[in-house]
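Deadline looming. Please check this record:
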Amino acid sequence: MLSWNKKSNDFTLVKTHTHTRSYYFSAIQIIIVSVAASRVHLRCVQRTMASIVRSELVDVLGTTPANALDLSRTEGPNKIFSVNGESREFHVNYSEQGVAYGETEKTSVSVVHAVKLSGGERRIAAYNLSAAPVERWGINFPGVLQLTVAGSDAADSSQIYLPGVRMYDPTGRTGDAHASERVGPSCAAFQTAVTVIELAAAYHGASLQELREVHESFRSCVVRYHGRVGLFDWMFQQIEDVVYSKKAVTPFSDFARVMVDEGKLDGSSDESEHTMVYLSKLVAPPAYYRKVKAKDNVDDVVRPEDRAKFDSFL
């Protein structure tokens, strides 16, 4: 018979005594029912996860999602980046504040950097922002950016998945003061700003080496205030994949698995236990939902029709 396993959020086959022939047909029926139930369960997971994530594009860019991204600008919102057309210099001017690791008082830091762009042509020919939440690889994203790379066919485009509040981060750390399984508003706003800056640099012709230089200018900031190095580097990897390698993005699940294999995440530690659970099923683990429940008013972020399913994930 089939039994619902609350810990694994899946059906478990419980063997019963039966004759060989009847057991053979029961097994086929069980497989059909299990596959159908798993698909229904997966759709519920996707719908519930997608419904609770929120984009920080509006806060970062100060405009509505429909008009939130204009990479052609020579000066970014709040002057977080600027481009000098004559000198071909790309300037970063970003300020971050918060309570850093190991500190108790709020401090601030500025990331000020300039890169001379060697390329004269923009690398992104077209882009389209979709602010509709999506679920991919068992992770919820607040939207995607569809990119067409310069020199490629207009029909040949790839998606970059955007970060957001209450997104599940498989490279987060359970119990961490800043970088838990659930992405918070501060981390989401920071990563959104960095991604917008890097996309703008790519748009205006930055080489991969120049883009990496822009990226690295933010590393001390993410390490000090946010701790989400995995998410930080994966967002860069997406841009590298789509714009420079002209291929589909590396799944975040694959990126996280490589981090474990390379020892950048300790899969045997308690703080990364959720990562290993996630990688075994590519479904957000109970630790993520527990963190959402601890940090958010669930009634405010989960639709009434999804509440029972959300509670079953805990």
The radius of gyration is 22 Å. Residues 191 and 232 are 7 Å apart (CA to CA). The chain has two domains: 1-52+296-314, 54-253. The first strand starts at residue 2 and ends at 5.
